[in-house]
Amino acid sequence: MYNTLLTQTENGTCIITINRPDKMNALNKDVIEELGAALDEVYNNSEIKSVIITGAGEKAFVAGADISEFLTLDAAGGAELATRGRVLVFDKIENCPKPVIAAVNGFALGGGCELAMACHFRVASANAKFGQPEVNLGLIPGYGGTQRLTRLIGQGKAMELLMTADMIGADEAKALGLVNHVVPMEELLTKAKEILQKIHTKAPLAITKIIACVNEAADGNHHSFDHEIVRFGECFMTEDMKEGTSGFLEKRKPVFKGK
Ligand code: COA
């Protein structure tokens, strides 16, 4: 169905694998377009309850935007490339009403690190490496890297990584809060699936509201506390809230319907 992606849905989790292993799964125009389409499917298909984004092979998650597309660009072309990526892919991942996890299976550099950071959270294989090497090319990140890295690991560490182009390993990424779990490569997808299966047992409308509230907090939205209160109130109007609270009081497991 796609030229640059593999997609497969099992137990409600859609696994999107970026599949250009000979080019370290670099994000060229085709990958961006196809990721956009795959994410539209995630939004529209009610059988998909969550997403894992990963890379093909055991070497790279994504080694960045495709550098071979850069040489001919001018200021407008560069901004256009970044904007298309943002609209088609990065904003859709961040604002996805269903949980999206990055399963980082190797190099996550430049646009690859940015792609992982746009996901709601990250798990990594022990060989994963993270970095923003754009300054090596006379560039800066354009898919939100300066913003999301600062939010995730703080200003000082973000400044250092962005200015030095240093790569860090999975354990350091975990210590910094960039990834939540580090597991052996062969357990990477299993770990991500396990976390998502747990989330699937919770009330889906509440999960969607969690994503929106936490994103607003990370954005520094001045009304985020007010919006949390509004969304909290909205939960009381759902069937799932009645099911969840009655289940607790009746000492039984709730069965949520997403209503
Ligand atoms: N864009 C386009 N092509 C890329 C790429 C990228 N971001 N990253 C890797 N590739 C290509 C290489 O050009 C090479 O293609 P070729 O076989 O046709 O020559 C192929 O992928 C394999 O990469 P190679 O560099 O030979 O592998 P390696 O194991 O020696 O090194 C990396 C792996 C990831 C360290 C190295 O490829 C690299 O530094 N990539 C660029 C990272 C980067 O700067 N990203 C930010 C972009 S803004």
What does this structure look like?
The chain is α/β, with parallel strands linked by helices and 259 residues long. It has 2 domains: 5-200, 2-enoyl-CoA Hydratase, Chain A, domain 1 (Alpha-Beta Complex), CATH 3.90.226.10; 204-249. Helix content is 47%, strand content 16%. The chain has 10 helices and 10 strands. The protein has helices spanning 29-44, 75-94, 111-118, 145-153, 155-164, 170-176, 188-200, 204-219, 224-235, 239-249, and strands spanning 5-10, 13-18, 50-55, 60-62, 100-104, 107-109, 121-125, 129-131, 168-169, 181-183. Strands 1-2-3-5-7-10 form a 6-stranded mixed β-sheet, with helices on both faces. Strands 4-6-8-9 form a 4-stranded mixed β-sheet. Strand 2 (13-18), helix 1 (29-44) and strand 3 (50-55) form a beta-alpha-beta unit. Helix 3 crosses helix 4 (145-153) and helix 4 packs across helix 5 (155-164). The radius of gyration is 19 Å and the shape is globular. 37% of the residues are buried.
